[in-house]
Write a structure and sequence with these properties.
14 strands, 6-stranded mixed β-sheet, single chain, elongated, 565 residues, alpha/beta
Length: 565
């Protein structure tokens, strides 16, 4: 696990922010060490204060109260700023790491390929939004907590050793002398406590992992209902959706009951262990006190030092629940990272080149399924500027998969492909994507709206029967919800007119349009972009007349290309 933790940490600590982060971490560590020093002073104060009480030394009372006030004030300042600066480091680290993961997720269509591979990676949004935050918070909390407790142990173990003195245990005629016996008793107590805590709490690791997964599945199911609310309403699918909610929520509750029961056992143990730790040092030191070998101040100082050493040695007992959560977070984040690296490393046998002739040329081009079955074998194709090619075939024949391969987001296949530079090529899916924002931003997507936009978008809207939207170009809304699919497809055609590509691929991009609007859309492309090549996927016979070439796919690897008169 340590290797996985370091692999996720090192990218930030070796990044361009490394010196700032290292400096801030150094200050936090120094503040933590300062707190330990204050605790040592406070331990010494216990001796002097309680001795003064035992001896009725009133003249020393108020000066010792003043000394305590100074120690407490300095400790509070250090504790507050240690937490504040740690949170500042968390913000910086989370910002950097979130951007790093987002870039990796979005690069080379990894977000899409994770689905193509039928990956078992669930809810990448949760990995980025929640698990990164938990990883950073727990890493700093556990590391700084361990460092503080280790320093406390080193500081107080010598104090406790000196205060313990020598324990003499008679064995017949001999006496066994044990120097610093309280240190050994504390070590045995804490070691046994840590071992039992692990035995009781180890099951929490898998329970925490499953809880996050079930919660995310339940939330994702509700998101799907929201995104597909109209379809569900038409189907009257409320009852099946409720049943789906109920099933996923049962998984949440069932796992949470297991988490509760295991946490209850761990809390029984931790609280019992903590309460016993209060009386244990008193019982061990009481014989010396009542024998007159130790004053009240020495007793209280011994109890305080024993508590500090015992707390330090029992760190893993107290932090076990956090450690269990940390392990599950590391597993999820590491799994997400490995899945992204897996899909990013996928190599296809497609040989891709660019040409200056603004044409699409395929030579011995084959497309396969992930399991190796062939969809298209040895395709030969030459689509020149001004050509309109229609790809047809039965459902499942590989029409959309061919477009994915041409878009370089489908890695399964081989052959040669030559097409214009990527910025001169455009793909339109059946359901266009409209981002949140103004309608003008949605029309220009994926590019930004020019600062001095003089484009006659209103005239394009008029031509495609969308005049009612002219006054809403700068209105912010969820346009994918407001506009019908047919209207969204017309918006997508306006994008073609704006970007003026040399080659455009249309994946059933007019399926929701009226035939008259569909014909108008194709006519506008020919009128405004006469040298543009168009490759369409479609079933409707109405678009056949708008094309001069046809490619029919059979789905078993065979294909047929022909001209259209």
């Amino acid at each position: 696990m340590a290797k996985n933790v370091w692999s996720m940490m090192r990218s930030y600590w070796k990044s361009e922010e490394r010196w700032w982060a290292r400096g801030l971490l150094t200050v936090i560590i120094l503040l933590s060490l300062g707190q330990v020093y204050m605790l040592v002073l406070l331990n010494q104060w216990h001796n002097e204060f309680y001795n003064a009480l035992q001896n009725y030394d009133y003249p020393s009372f108020w000066p010792l109260i003043g000394q305590f006030t100074v120690i407490a004030f300095v400790y509070i300042i250090m504790a507050v700023y240690a937490v504040y600066l740690r949170q500042m480091l968390e913000i910086k680290w989370r910002t950097w790491m979130t951007r790093h993961y987002l870039r990796s997720w979005m690069a080379k269509q990894v977000y899409y390929k994770l689905q193509v591979l039928n990956s078992d990676m669930d809810n990448p949004d949760q990995r980025i939004s929640e698990d990164i935050n938990s990883f950073i918070n727990l890493t700093l909390t556990l590391f700084l907590g361990f460092l503080k407790q280790f320093t406390t142990l080193m500081a107080f173990v010598f104090v406790l050793w000196n205060l313990s003195g020598v324990l003499e245990i008679p064995f017949g005629e001999t006496v066994l002398s044990v120097p610093g016996y309280m240190v050994f008793l504390c070590l045995i107590y804490s070691t046994l406590g840590t071992w039992f805590a692990h035995k009781v709490g180890s099951r929490l690791i898998s329970l925490n992992y499953d809880q996050q997964r079930f919660e995310a599945d339940f939330r994702f199911n509700m998101v799907r209902v929201r995104e597909n609310s109209e379809s569900i309403a038409f189907y009257r699918g409320e009852q099946p959706e409720l049943e789906g909610f109920d099933q996923r929520f049962k998984n949440v509750i069932k796992n949470f009951w297991g988490l509760m029961k295991r946490t209850k056992l761990l809390n029984f143990y931790i609280n019992g262990y903590a309460q016993l730790a209060i009386i244990f040092p008193i019982l061990m030191a009481a014989p010396k006190y009542f024998a007159g070998e130790m004053q009240l101040g020495g007793l209280m100082q011994t109890i305080s030092a024993f508590g500090r050493v015992q707390d330090a040695l029992s760190y893993f007992v107290d932090a076990y629940a956090s450690i269990a959560q940390y392990v599950s977070v590391i597993r999820r984040l590491n799994g997400f990272t490995e899945h992204m690296e897996e899909v990013d490393s996928l190599k296809s046998d497609f040989v891709i080149s660019n040409n200056n002739e603004n044409k699409l040329a395929l030579m011995n081009f084959s497309v396969d399924l992930p399991n190796g079955d062939s969809l298209i074998e040895g395709l030969q194709l030459d689509v020149r500027p001004g050509n309109y090619l229609l790809i047809s075939g039965d459902s499942g024949a590989g029409k959309s998969t061919l477009l994915r391969a041409l878009a370089e987001i489908w890695p399964y296949g081989k052959g040669q492909m030559s097409l214009p530079d990527s910025w001169r090529v455009m793909f339109l899916p059946q359901r266009p994507y409209l981002p949140l924002g103004t309608l003008r931003q949605a029309i220009f997507y994926p590019q930004s709206v020019p600062e001095n936009d003089s484009t006659d978008i209103g005239g394009m809207l008029d031509a495609l029967g969308l005049s009612a939207l002219k006054d809403k170009l700068d209105t912010v809304d969820d346009w994918s919800r407001i506009l019908s699919l047919g209207e969204q497809q017309r918006i997508a055609f306006i994008r073609i007119l704006l970007f003026k590509p040399q080659l455009v691929f249309l994946d059933e991009s007019t399926s929701a349009m009226d035939e008259s609007v569909e014909a108008k859309s194709y006519d506008m492309l020919k009128e405004y972009l006469p040298d543009m090549a168009v490759v369409s996927v479609g079933h409707r016979s109405s678009i056949l007349s708008r094309h001069d070439m046809k490619l029919v796919l059979s789905g078993n690897g065979s294909w047929a290309a022909e001209g259209i008169n």
